[in-house]
Every structure is written in structure tokens, then in C-alpha cells.
Fold this sequence. Notes:
This protein is α+β, with helices and mostly antiparallel strands. 23% of the residues lie in helices and 27% in strands. The strands form six sheets. Strands 6-7-12-10-11 form a five-stranded antiparallel β-sheet, with no helix packed on it. A four-stranded mixed β-sheet has the order 1-2-5-3, with no helix packed on it. Strands 13-18-17-16 form a four-stranded antiparallel β-sheet.
Amino acid sequence: xxxxxxxxxxxxxxxxxxxxxxxxxxxxxxxxxxxxxxxxxxxxxxxxxxxxxxxxxxxxxxxxxxxxxxxxxxxxxxxxxxxxxxxxxxxxxxxxxxxxxxxxxxxxxxxxxxxxxxxxxxxxxxxxxxxxxxxxxxxxxxxxxxxxxxxxxxxxxxxxxxxxxxxxxxxxxxxxxxxxxxxxxxxxxxxxxxxxxxxxxxxxxxxxxxxxxxxxxxxxxxxxxxxxxxxxxxxxxxxxxxxxxxxxxxxxxxxxxxxxxxxxxxxxxxxxxxxxxxxxxxxxxxxxxxxxxxxxxxxxxxxxxxxxxxxxxxxxxxxxxxxxxxxxxxxxxxxxxxxxxxxxx
Length: 345
């Protein structure tokens, strides 16, 4: 049995019968035909028990510029490349499109599955195509952006292609002129305020990434030092009727469009014409006193109620029990069902 705790950022104990490192495309042929769990950097997964099969650790490398023009650059990136390092590589070259996604833990191959997003950007805005290997067909395929069926924290890889694929590389199309979005704000901070502390307009792509890193460093734990998987739940979508009811309890609750990663003013027509809105799950948990709460070896970060952290001795079962208590509390007080962002195994 192989210990999996060094391979996940939550660092809880779990074992698997076999671990295979995928360093080249040829290594895929070593995989059994079933009962395989694919693991990138383990930044978005909770093992609640041992895994009775094979875990494949994805290390596929490579950053290759496929095409470049005066306006844009097309880059193919290996699924095993570290996401943050790739973001910083693009920022250093002044290529715009993913600079707001700095310091998100994980690997490039996980980005389209989750359709990661933060601070006004989501990765589907820059993905040109995704290369994947179909396990049952034993063939490689390419999916266009539209075929990936991207939605908020969602894609076809979580549905139609679930358990059938291994992403091998992702191709991005980035702009040589800045398309940075600075409209992110919360009741604690805003991107405009943070970037104004460190730079002067016109802001460079590197300035935006630095500002995002500063915000994330202040409100998120360092996963190298403490067990965490970052935000544990998705931000819920609710009806306008439900929003009105919620505003009776939390008058200043923020809400946003359900599409994209926009942060418009509350008077924006996009909000007025929508039947549903997205609300911050962290704010709901704040209201119920979950920020900085600890039960045994599991707790939430003292700067962000949406972020579960582990302490020495924590088990996957403890983390899951703690998370379920959070969900039950939200359901009891607000009649809202929180959905997991983290993959529970």
C-alpha cells in the first residue's frame, strides 16, 4: 500500500494499492483499464478512506508556444505543469488572460475540469482546446472550447466524460495587450485598492498578478505550511425571491451574475434582468460564526470561513464530518444547499 498524504494539500492519511507516475504519454499504457483515480497536485481532493485501486500521479511537462502574432500567443501546456508557475511565466511575458488566477494551487490539467476562476477571470475565457486520452477507447482526442461545455466550476469532464479521460495538455490563447479585470471587490478588499498600493496606471499584467498574490496571501493559508484545499464549497446560485428573503437577514449581502466572473455594481442591468444570482458562501458561513472555528484537528482559516484547514492528526473522515456540519448549519439557517467544490473520495 502507498501512502497518499504527501500527494494532497490536505495531508490527511489515506493509502492506495498502487501509485503510478505519469511522466510521458507512454506511461499511460501502464494504467489498468478500470478503478483508476487521477491526481494532479492534490489541491482539490479529500480522501476520506483508502482508495482500493490505482492512483495515477500526473506529471506531464512542457510549455510550448505554437503560434504567435502581433496581438496574441497560442501556448500548449503539459497537464502536469504547476498552475501558478505557468501564470507567472505568462505574466513575465506580458501575456494577458490568466493573471488574476495567480497563486491558485494545482496543476494545469486540473484547470479545465474545475473551470477555475478568481478575481474576475475564469480559465474558460482563454482555453483554446483540451487534449485528452480516452481510457476505454485507448485514443487521444482534442476538445474545442465550446465542446468542453464550460460553466461556473463545471465542464464536460465532470459529466459526460467523467472517469473516462486523462487530460494530457491544454492549449491557451492569450493576448499581448492587457485584458486585466480589476472590478473584483468584497466587503474586505478590492483589486483596485490593492493594485493602487503597489503600482500606477496604466497597470501591467505583472502588477495585476502581484496584487492578486497579495490579496490571496492575506486571506488564504499557505498550503505548503498547513493542510488545506482552499475554498471547500461553491458559491450558491439562488432565485431573486430567495435573495429578497436573505436580504431580510443579511441586508448587505453581495450578489453577482451567475455567468462569468463579473463583479458589477448592484444597479447593473445584467443583475436586474437575471432570474438567478450568485452569492458568496463565505459570507453565509461568516454570519454563523464559522470563521476561525476549530473542532478537534479540523477548522476553518481565521481569515476566510470558506477555507477548511487541518491540524496534525486530522483524518479525512474528520474533515468530511466538519464540512457536513458546515453544510447542515447553512441549510438550517438559510435553507440553502452548499455544493462541494472539493472532490470527495
